[in-house]
Amino acid sequence: MRDPFQNPFPSDSARQAIWEMLVSRDIDAFLAADWSMVEDDFVEEGFMGIDGRKEVNPDKWRLAFPTLSAYREEWLRQARDFAGQSFAEDPRTAIFTTTTLEDIEIEGETALVRKKFDGGITKADGTRDVLQWQTLYYCRRHQGRWKISGFTGYLPNPMG
């Protein structure tokens, strides 16, 4: 069984850095509702995010985040909403357990990263929030390190 807290790329520095950025740092920043923890992980110029709306049909996807600031505002809204909820289990453990990032395709200074969520988190009232979607991140080496230049997210998991 995989350890959800363990970086699966111990001997590959590029993939290890991307995993740390998109799993460890992203989850911890989200739980703290602290954008400053991840703001340097993005390339602002040309950033674009697509909201797949958990739809298989790309005709229903939307350019919800034409700029990094648009994405930041939505990220902060979601993080603050999450922080205001009560859970029956440790949220950090639940999110790490739900998250899988094991497929990173690198060509030169560009990477395509597949991050998947498959599970859920139990709320204090006994209901369960299902976390089941996937995101394709577009990353590139920028100013000496790997950063996110865009994504197509909130896609169904599995597709189709």
Describe the structure.
By secondary structure, the chain is of the alpha+beta class. The protein is 28% helix and 36% strand. Helix 1 packs antiparallel against helix 3.
Q: What are the secondary-structure elements, in order, as H or E?
A: HEEHHEEEE
The radius of gyration computed from the alpha-carbon positions, rounded to a whole number of angstroms, is 15 Å
Calculate the mean pLDDT score and round it. 97
Tally of separate helices: 3
How many angstroms separate the termini? Answer: 27 Å
Strand content: 35-45%
- Pick out the low-confidence regions: none
Shape: globular
Instruction: Please report the total strand number as a whole number.
Output: 6
Largest sheet: 6 strands, mixed
Question: What percent of residues adopt helix (DSSP H or I)?
Answer: 25-40%
Query: How would you write the strand order of the largest sheet?
Result: 2-1-6-5-4-3
Structural class determined from secondary elements: alpha+beta
Short description:
28% of the residues lie in helices and 36% in strands.
List the helices and strands and how they pair.
Layout: H1 13-32, E1 48-51, E2 62-65, H2 68-83, H3 91-98, E3 99-107, E4 110-122, E5 128-142, E6 145-156
Parallel strand pairs: 1-6
Antiparallel strand pairs: 1-2, 3-4, 4-5, 5-6
Helix pairs in contact: 1-3
